[in-house]
Amino acid sequence: MIELTIDGKLIQAEKGSTILQIAKANNIKIPHLCWDRRLKPYGGCRLCLVEVEGQRKLLAACSTPAENGMVIKTDTPVLRKARKTVLELLLVHHPLDCPICDKAGECDLQDLAYQYGPSEGRFYAERKHDPEATSPLIERNPNRCILCGRCVRVCWEHQGVGAINLIGRGFNTKISPAFEETLDCEFCGQCVDACPVGALGTKPYKYRARAWFLESTDTICPYCSVGCTLTLDLREGKILRVRGMDGVGVNEGDLCGKGRFGFDFIYSEGRLTKPLLRKNGEFQEVDWEEALYYIAERLRDIKETHGPEKIGAIGSARTTLEDDIMLARFFREVLGSDNIDSSARLGYAWALKGMEDTLGIKSNPVSLNSPIGKEVVLVLESDITSTHPIFGLKFLEAMHEGTEVIVVDPRKTKLARRGNRWLRNRPGTITPFLYGITHLAMKEGVHLKKDITAEGLDELEDGLREYTPGKVSELTGIDEDLFREVALRFINAESRLLTLTLGAAENQKGLETIHAAANLLMLLGEGPEALQIPSDYSNTYGAWLAGLRPLSGGKDLYGMLYTPGSLKALYVMGEDPLVTMPDAGTIEENLKDLELLIVQDIRLSETGKLAHVVLPASSWAEKEGSFINSQGIRQMLPKVVSTTGDSIADWKIFRNIARVMGHDLGTVEFSQLKEEAGKIVPEEGTRKWRFIPPEWEGLARTTEEYPILMVTGNIMQHSGSLSVMSKSLSHVLSDAFVQISPEDAGRFRIGDGEFIEITSPKGTVYIKARVSDEIPEGMLFVPLHFAHARVNLLTEVSRDGKALLTPVRIGPRKGNGGSPAG
Amino acid sequence: MDKFLLRGIEEEGSAAIASYREKGGYAALEKALSMKPEEIIEEVKRSGLRGRGGAGFPTGMKWDFASRDPKFPKYLICNADEGEPGTFKDRPILEKNPHLLIEGMIISGHALKAEYGYIYLRGEYPGAKVVLEQAIEEAYKEGLLGDDILGKGIKFHLSVHQGAGAYICGEETALIDSIEGRRGQPRIKPPFPVNVGAWGMPTIVNNVETLSNLPLIVSIGGEKYAGIGNPECPGPKIYSVSCCVKKPGVYELPMGTTLREIIYTHAGGIRDDRPLKAVIPGGISTPVLTPDQIDCKMDFVNLPKVGSMLGSGAVMVFDDTVCLVRVCWRALRFFEHESCGKCVPCREGTGWLRNILERIENGFGRKGDIELLQDVAHSMAGKTFCPLGDGAANVVLSFIRQFHDEFEHHIEKKECMA
Ligand SMILES: Cc1cc2nc3c(=O)[nH]c(=O)nc-3n(C[C@H](O)[C@H](O)[C@H](O)COP(=O)(O)O)c2cc1C
Ligand code: SF4
Ligand code: SF4
Ligand code: SF4
Ligand code: FES
Fold first, then answer.
1. How far is B88 from chain A (nearest CA, A)?
2. Atom of ligand 2 nearest to the CA of A187
3. How many CA within 13 A on the CB side of residue B318?
4. 3-state SS assignment for residue A55
5. Nearest ligand to the C-alpha atom of residue A36
6. A76 vs B: CB within 8 A
7. For A421-429, what is the mean pLDDT?
8. Min Cα separation A90/chain B (Å)
9. Does domain B324-413 have CATH number 1.20.1440.230?
10. Dihedrals phi, psi of A746, to nearest 5 degrees
11. Which of A28, A272, A303, B358 is deepest in the core (most CB within 10 A)?
12. Fold for domain B17-225?
């Protein structure tokens, strides 16, 4: 601790902080333009100058470390004059086009110029750069740029991208994409929020409103399970843009492209406005009454004829906790069926089971800041900066603060590129990789030094005997010495973390991977905090906790969607199994056999197209509710905009059907439901540790006929099938694609951008190829978001939660008929 | 005094290793390699050597900081970016006496336990590049560079890095940025390069002339070296003299030689024996002096006493035919062009100053322009990120202070006094 005086106030502070940091913490205002909490000090704007006793020169508060005994003044006539001239100098090259600048009213330069009094305008020079329109979502006006460098630094230092840079010298300097192209941009829009003036803006917002006419409301992002706080700016009841507010929410102001630009899915033309009822094979718009009576009658019939065990429900990972509770209650209390499940079954449920089997816990929420301060972090076959962008940023931040981030992944993900080390393994071999480290740890005798009482240690040791570094190297394709080095690094670290995702869309990790990871950590004496597995979507975890899963022997998702004849009626809420779930062909056959398929959604999904009734639901911004994020935190969503058409909040639909069926679910008002949701707590578990012996079934089988492994997953600009409805996000990326290595592209004579056919034993789909060195030879990577590609026709479902990569063959598309998959 | 830094450079083939050896070259290296690194640093401290790159920082102290940092590898960088108008003192060493610099760098590398050295060479010195590379190759051939220098188990590798053609890249942190392959903008200090420099490692940046003093210090010892020139900042110094003198060129003289002696004894006096009007003593970014100030000793201690600085020791002499408004304007044109753009006062201020000077020079000066110049310069001085902007402001302030009449005349009469 040090002690110093600022403006006559005696202040104690942490050694190593800058004057500005200390001033901020003590509510002393020093103006600044180029400083950003997240970035290294830059010292360019010179507005934060302060006087320090005994120093001849004025010092920049943002970049001067405070020292014990310093006597600092932040507001004196000398400083006011200095700042005023800096502002005057800044305005030399800044066009005074505030009347047509979208930033007016919330511009730091405007505010400061106002605060320090009018500039005398003694000198004025013009810059004549053209406003640039090279990016689909971000608008640059270089003439307004004050060259504070925040955008460039946020993009590189904080986002780890480096899509833009400063080029030129002096006042001719300008911000420019590397080589004047936007190749690397991820469209996170972080640069836009960082810009203190109107030089960067988002396109969808351009000329839409003056800042002072906007009303702002905070809500929670509907996309991934990080659960970022979004600040929505509305005008006349319409959301015009989304911003992150410095320090607000679990994200503390950071946002990814989905959160920032993806909100416009609610205004998509595809939104359902009325219930649809199939009459003579065709959908007809009907009113709610007709739809509800039809549903009530059919459900009653089917229950009476076939029994409640023939009725099932698939819930959503994106509806609110309150919606989920009502679905569960409707099924259990009104229909008497426990056949309820959600997409969590395909991924997160296995992660939970894996952790219960080993660590004896029933829930393990992540902590966003967990990577920070760890000595070594292992990121295993998981593209976290894409699937959970803001969690992903923490790995970069940790790295800046000295953590060694080691990435094991066949794909050259952003963390692979930016992390300290990247080991490229064969797809689907994380499990033997973990076995190998565990084997080495045992050889090192680490478990002997710790007092480990967990069951199964001997069996584990026996089972791992064959996983020598040599064998692991053979299986994973990682160099033996490198493997040994990394393994020992992890074993001998003072503090460590293992992270991976196990999403519904992924097929290269499974239950056995979780077991292997937990085994290793327990052996090293680490608790559950060292294993960070985030849930998928905004409310995946909430749906699980709200009881969207069989609780008393009901059928699970496998039993309902993949078992022929298991159901007569299915209720699908906010989910599109035909697109997002594996082996879509089997699902389709089973859905077609149903006597009643009810689909409740915000738009007509692929699954909806097969339904007997389709109900229009309100979207995330159109209703009150809450989500539980991957940290286990319940966050409230206000109702922000009015509902679309005749759509109704999901929870209300269940209340209404129940009423028609003569049941009063007791929930008349939202407040009661909200209270009920507030009582949900995760279950504890026994916390008794147990080792699970190796169970990996060997390398995924490629054959001569199917020589390539297809890996599926989520990508950065999309998330499940929701984001595809967003016009902005689709601007960036709307075409389905498969990534293929340059080697395979050469071998199979496939050009970048060409349509190819992919065939698995299940069928064939046609899709555009993107040749990319992010992918190793022998592997394809396909995102599942795009309905028209139907990639899930090729995949298989793994009912025991084991990883199941899809062996396929590929080739140029033959003939030129329309895409049968479309 | 015998010349040391520029000894024998007028001879044909002076850059060859054989010729350097004939003058006793690389004897100091043999001695140095038998000394412990700490002993060499001790000698450098004793010698009182101050950096010749402009700031005059005590070299021994800088080395001490660097050698105390526990991190390895350490890098040694020779700053050969010499880009300031009027400054051409490093050039003769680079082109005519490269082995002196190389010997100095090997000794320094040993003293600092740095195994890699770089010469960051000004882009506009392609001739020097050829000479240096040739000399480095010779040194490798003779076992003076490499993994096991002269069989003493000491490792030092050296290579030339061609500069990016920007004046700012001569500033040590911008230089490091540039070596790392980035844009070349000054960084925040602290941390200083001696702790966090190239690729995050301790890095010692010294000027060509500074490093070229090492063989002398090692061979005659720090104590004896301290007896050369002004004892407060001793050693030989290369002055580059240009503009209105009879014999422009480089002169190696003891530190502390007076300006008068440099101009009138060594450079042959003013061209056509005209009256002296003004002198810039240390390169374009040092404040200008009037004729009555030329008895000042040219060193780091005495020039500040008359309101200027030694800088790089580039003496620019102006006679009564020269328009000083024009000189000032040209200087600001240079600074405007070379401002890196990072900080506001420099980026915007240099352009504004240039603009006002330009209109005065062209006969469009307005009443109040002198005050405006001073106002803008004051708002830059001491407030910029690095010394470049500071220098620009001080040049303007000194010209106005010393030659106020000339500026006034320009504005009022719309013509030049000269
Ligand atoms: C704008 C600017 C330009 C500079 N140019 C040079 C240069 O060309 N050569 C040089 O040796 N030092 C230059 N310097 C000084 C260096 O930053 C640094 O102080 C010097 O290389 C240290 O070496 P020394 O201690 O041997 O003098 C410059 C400094 C500034 C601020
Ligand atoms: S949107 Fe994101 S990735 Fe693109 S330039 Fe801005 S900060 Fe960089
Ligand atoms: S575009 Fe904005 S953030 Fe980027 S340098 Fe210019 S003013 Fe700063
Ligand atoms: S998608 Fe996830 S990371 Fe992105 S803004 Fe939404 S909650 Fe945050
Ligand atoms: S905030 Fe300190 S210089 Fe910009």
1. 24
2. 1
3. 22
4. coil
5. 5
6. no
7. 96
8. 6
9. yes
10. -65, -45
11. A272
12. Rossmann fold (3.40.50)
